[in-house]
Design goal:
single chain; about 60 residues; mainly alpha; two-stranded antiparallel sheet; globular
């Protein structure tokens, strides 16, 4: 199962979900679903925006558990 660690990354950077939505132009419901591990799929372009924003690798956001 793939888990999203976005909530922890946001906390680490002292950001809210809303801050991220505004910064990358994502829908709040999409970011909320990712943070709560309820998303069933994600566009690669969104994953790229998140990784670019945090200057991290995709493996810092998504892990296999």
């Amino acid at each position: 199962m793939i888990k999203c660690c976005l909530k922890a990354v946001l906390k680490e950077h002292n950001l809210t979900q809303k801050d991220l939505c505004v910064a990358i132009g994502a829908r709040p419901s999409t970011i909320c679903d990712l943070c709560n591990n309820k998303a069933e799929n994600i566009k690669l372009s969104l994953a790229e925006k998140i990784c670019t924003y945090f200057n991290c690798k995709i493996s810092d956001i998504f892990v296999i558990k």
